[in-house]
Predict the structure.
Amino acid sequence: MANHKSCEKRIRQTKTKTLNNKYYAKTMRNAVRKLRAMTNKDEAIALYPKVQQMLDKLAKKNVIHKNKAANIKSSLAQHIQKLG
């Protein structure tokens, strides 16, 4: 266990950040799942910018890698294009 006050504080901060990161990553995954499950093109087009913004924010904060965000955005755009 930690022997210094600063180490104890760092442990508390890390725990809080980990919980926040897990929450935001899970929210993002659910939004991506929701968009992939859509069959209506108009609804998908309306939701896509929100998901894209979420991915960009998480990549900026290093919750997910920037290339992963780019890959997900690309695959979602392809999915929307295929909708009829």
Q: What stands out?
A: DSSP finds three helices and no strands in the chain.
